[in-house]
Amino acid sequence: MSPLGRLRALGAFQHQAFAPALLAGLLATAVYTSAQVSIPLVTGSIIDKALLARDSGALLSNVALLIGVATLSTLSRGVQQTLFAWLAERSRAELQARLLARLYTLPLAFFDRERSGRLQSLLTEDASMVARLGFQALSEATIGILQLGLILGVLAIRHGKAAWAALMLIPIYMLFPLFFGKRIRAASSEALAATAEVATTLQESIQAVREMKVFDREGWAVTRLRGRLAADVARQVRLAVIRSLHGLSYSIYFLVAGSAYWFGGQELLAGHISVGELVALVALLAYLDGPVGRLVQLNTDAQRVIAGVDRITGTLGAKEVESVNGGRNLEPGGHRVSFEGITLCYGDPGQAVLRDISFTVESGQRIALVGPSGAGKSSLVALLVRLYEPESGRILIDGCDLRTWNLASLRSEIGFVLQETILFAGTVEENLRFGRLDATTAEIEDCARIANAHEFIQRLPYGYQTEIGERGVKLSGGQRQRIGIARILLRRPGILVLDEAMSALDTDGERLVREALERLMEGRTTFVITHRPSAFVGADRIFVLAEGQIVAEGRHAELLASCTIYRSLVGAGAKAAPEIP
Ligand code: ADP
Predict the structure, then answer these.
(1) CA-derived radius of gyration, the chain
(2) 213-266 confidence digits (pLDDT tens)
(3) Within a 13 Å sphere around the CA of 47, how many CA atoms are in the beta-carbon half?
(4) Which atom of ligand 1 has the smallest separation from the CA of 346?
């Protein structure tokens, strides 16, 4: 498929006004180029028909015509630029929104492989570049082609020989942009890189002021900056020199004008052409520079756009797609969960992260998964919401394979409280509503109350309408966690996963979080992943995981007596949380 076709498949150009705007843009381009190419012709006719003929009536009408044509050219250029800008920005916005939607359809394993910085630059820089440069190139190319056609056409009709001369001039006009274009681009990207290097060094040096001082390395830091600055200066000067050499291309204009005056002048002296025609000829030949330059530039612009499209579609065109629709809906309620011979490998078949895991959790039961870090606890619960698919084995909810349940309904039935609650820039209420978009204000406040969050929220400057995040108030870890719990309460999931939900907390506010979690767990089938004894002693059953396998299971007292790994975990946890007996 062509790059355009692939972008269309991603939905880039879908807007009902798109085709009419493009058509109008092309029409404005045609008006603009025709008006522009007419200017030398009208100038010629002012000289011949008005000045040399000493006809003041013709002077007035031709000058009026000149002003009219010039105004038309300016206006149509303005309309043309506005329409193309609208097309570029509109398709950029559509492209970015659709790319994010597309990104969300890909499985989590895709995000493990791709660096998030790269994905972000695909959605911001590449998408903008493709849309903006794409339409700019289209606009410039149509202008270039129309101008070239019109100029050559006029020359062919009015000065047969000059048209041939013009054709021969084209390669000369191409020479400079071709020769310098590549060099200027290379030099300016080197200059940009050098400037970026200076910026990074500066940022690092300021951020690391403490290290520089305690290591006594201030001098070293300044010398390092000087080195980068020197490289930057060298690159900038080189770029300036290349640019000024490129400026020499103006001499071509005078070469062309000189030869046109020379050859055209002889025609004039021989009485074959008029003075006005000579002036128009010289101006038209000089005009050729514009379209030729535009078409040369088109080549590089098109390559950049195609490379951008390739990057976007190459990454986001991945075949694997999660289907969240289809399948039966998992209705709200308590659920029984069974793992049957689950083995999971993240891409590497030789390296199983989970091996042959089997157990069943009855509806409403609370189980704890404990084990050293890296044992596979988080991976096990990730399988519950199908963030990954196991290599073998299956998971059943209420006796049916996970894959038979509609994915969206499955995910809304399982609530996750993680070590840290991610809040978005926005108000407290918006962040709570993230749990259930159609929740009423009363429901939101109820859940905040149950989660021990209502009080502190009310004390915030604007209560539930207080902005949080980068630009708003900062919340403590415990406060964030309680908002996270209220969010899950709003969702009313039948199954709950607490993945180290208490680990990042300091003792301050911990009681409130623990209380909120207790209320959240009530009546729900719960998986608690933890290294804190306080959280697992109350569990109905405890599973000890090590190196991807269940090595022991039972209740707290049994495991304390029989399992060394468990004993060491309790020991370590007890040290980390001394307030637990
Ligand atoms: P735990 O929760 O017990 O600390 P995890 O389930 O996070 O353990 O990790 C188990 C093993 O799987 C670790 O060796 C970890 O490096 C690996 N792992 C976890 N997530 C991924 C992933 N997305 N891709 C590849 N390997 C992973």
Answers:
(1) 36
(2) 998 999 999 999 999 999 999 999 999 999 898 877 777 777 777 877 888 888
(3) 14
(4) 25
CB of 377 closer than 6 A to ligand 1?
A: yes
Q: At what angle do helices 477-491 and 441-450 cross, to 10 degrees?
A: 130
Give CA 240 to chain center in angstroms: 33
What does the block give as tokens for 505? 């907390």
- Which atom belonging to ligand 1 lies closest to the Cα atom of 347? 25
Give the 3-state secondary structure of 483-537. Answer: HHHHHHHHHCCCEEEEECCCCCCCCCCHHHHHHHHHHHHCCCEEEEECCCHHHHC
Is the CB of residue 546 below 6 angstroms from any atom belonging to ligand 1?
A: no
DSSP tag of 396: E
Q: Could you count the other beta carbons within 10 Å of the beta carbon of residue 18?
A: 16
Q: Quick one: three-class SS letters along 16-42?
A: CCHHHHHHHHHHHHHHHHHHHHHHHHH
How far apart are the CA of 578 and the centre of ligand 1, in A?
Answer: 28
- Reading the block at residue 574, the tokens are 């007890």
Q: Could you read off the pLDDT of 404-419 as tens digits, one per residue?
A: 999 989 999 999 998 8
Residues 6+ apart with CB under 8 A from 173: 252, 288, 289, 292, 293
